[in-house]
Write a structure and sequence with these properties.
By secondary structure, the protein is α/β, with parallel strands linked by helices. It folds into two domains: about 1-50, no CATH class; about 55-140, Hect, E3 ligase catalytic fold. The chain has seven helices and four strands. The protein is elongated. This is HECT-type E3 ubiquitin transferase. Keywords: Ligase, Transferase, Ubl conjugation pathway. It comes from Chloropsis cyanopogon.
């Protein structure tokens, strides 16, 4: 029985996927030659390609920059109070709304900067917040 289980596991996890994996590896190496990525540990390469998935949300607040706002303005304080009360899933949804992705590039939150700006509209109560994902600007009406 042990030999059968060993052979079955070997087939399932190795032999059955050998050809598709070789094809994938050949294409991957064509686009990203081994000399460019062999210096990374697997975990580092994963973060580099996929980005970070866990965050220090207070660091996000610390790195925020402001246009037409000051850090101590009531709208900004209210925004961060509400933000920090959100569950983790909603915070990641906000990140996707702001940047187009639930993940941060390989540099991490230490270097992630975004702006919170006042869109300076005539009737701010009639406007919702919106984002410019290319420039990482969150437009927050007063």
């Amino acid at each position: 029985r042990k030999e059968y289980v060993d052979l079955y596991v070997n087939y399932t996890f190795n032999k059955s996927v050998q050809k598709p994996f070789e094809d994938f590896m050949q294409g991957f190496l064509r686009g990203c030659p081994a000399r460019n990525w062999k210096m990374f540990f697997p975990e580092e390469l994963q973060v580099l390609l996929q980005g970070h998935a866990t965050f220090d949300w207070h660091l996000l607040e610390k790195n925020a920059m402001y246009r037409q706002y000051k850090k101590l303005d009531q709208a900004i304080r209210n925004f961060w109070t509400v933000f920090h009360k959100l569950p983790e899933e909603k915070k990641k949804m906000f990140l996707a709304f702001l940047s187009g992705s639930e993940r941060i590039t390989g540099y991490g939150l230490e270097r992630f900067r975004f702006w919170i700006a006042d869109p300076q509209v005539e009737n701010p109560d009639e406007r919702s917040l919106y984002a410019n994902t290319c420039s990482l600007i969150l437009f927050l009406p007063r």
